[in-house]
Design brief:
The protein is an alpha/beta fold. The chain has helices at residues 20-33, 51-54, 68-75, 79-88, 101-107, 125-132, 147-156, 173-176, 179-184, 200-207, 234-250, 261-268, 305-308; strands at residues 7-11, 37-42, 93-98, 114-117, 137-141, 161-166, 190-193, 212-216, 273-276, 291-294.
Length: 330
């Protein structure tokens, strides 16, 4: 890991249920949990689906509206409110997720850091071209993308692009998280997003090199809405942040950590020292045949044996006596 810090993003998306005050509370909760950033989304409802789909009854989300159109209109915040939320999130990374080209045109002037393209937009070439023209980082979800779609994505977005390995709710997390390794072969940084209620796949992703982890955040999983049931509560997000930082702490260096005092005490009795294989008289030139290695580690380390061979003994050295720099000619 070499000291790399993974950015943890709390996805608010539609979990504000169209209430700007709830969105602010979610931003505050993300900040208090130790997240690095938040994600907000914007879509043009008329472009979210064809008319016959939008006007179907939305039985699952009846509390938000009688049809999918009405439910989507309920949770879609005006761009002016999103601008206020971007300011409210000062100090956090802000990712804005346009659902279509018109939504991107409204979001582009706002003060935010990165564009998040959810996985359905990987094949939306008009959106890819538009966001690539900005100077912002593009974070692209690639769940279910084919190799040709990934090639197109890299072609349309040649600049600052992060490939977000996204687990769909039906995906087996233990198996699919390994795709991060494959994504790294494209030479771009990788991230991970999922809607599981534990941190196992996120921690695995961090260990595999993810530089961003995204988790949906809610104030109450029992609320009506498409994402609440699969979102973390603020306390659960805080626990995930602590777990990720603890993992980074123990993998922060490519060098081995120093042994603890307890380990040193135990190893002292097991590690070898240079000792005399037989009696060495004073003035004798020390040869390799006169030396052997035996525990405990009370004498010179085996690493310095090449420096000892060829030196003369300053004193008589008895068999099995430890060699030290004090008994040889330097």
């Amino acid at each position: 890991m070499s000291g790399r810090r993974c950015r943890i993003i709390a996805a608010i998306d539609a979990n504000h249920n169209g209430d700007a005050d709830v969105a602010r509370r979610l931003i505050d909760a993300a900040r208090e949990a130790g997240a690095d950033g938040i994600k907000l989304q914007k879509r043009t409802v008329g472009l979210a689906a064809v008319r016959q789909v939008l006007d179907r009854p939305a039985a699952r989300y009846a509390a938000l509206g009688p049809t999918y159109r009405k439910a989507l209109e309920r949770v879609d915040l005006p761009v002016e409110v999103l601008a206020d939320l971007c300011e409210h999130a000062a100090g956090l990374d802000v990712l804005l997720a346009p659902g279509d080209l018109e939504a991107w045109r409204q979001l582009a002037p706002l003060p935010f850091g990165a564009v998040k393209l959810d996985t359905a937009l990987v094949s939306h070439h008009l959106v890819l071209e538009a966001v690539a023209a900005s100077s912002r980082q593009v974070v692209a979800g690639v769940a279910g993308a084919t190799r040709s779609e990934l090639d197109d994505l890299l072609r349309f977005v040649p600049g600052d692009l992060l490939l977000m390995h996204t687990l769909l709710r039906s995906a087996p997390t233990v198996i699919d998280v390994s795709h991060l390794v494959a994504l790294r072969r494209f030479g771009r940084p990788v991230g991970h997003a999922d809607s599981s209620l534990d941190g196992a796949s996120s921690l695995t992703a961090v260990a595999l090199g993810a530089v961003m982890v995204e988790k949906p955040l809610t104030l109450d999983r029992a609320q009506a809405g498409p994402d609440h049931a699969a979102s973390l509560t603020p306390g659960e997000l805080a626990a995930l942040v602590r777990a990720v930082r603890a993992l980074e702490a123990v993998t922060a260096s490519e060098w081995l950590l120093d042994a603890t005092p307890e380990e040193m005490d135990e190893l002292e009795w097991a590690r070898p020292s240079i000792v005399a294989a037989r009696a060495i008289p004073r003035g004798a030139e020390i040869t390799a045949a006169m030396l052997t290695l035996k525990p405990p580690a009370w004498g010179l380390s085996p690493r310095v044996q090449p420096l000892i061979v060829g030196r003369r003994a300053l004193y008589d050295i008895a068999e099995d006596e430890f060699l030290t720099f004090g008994v040889i000619e330097l």
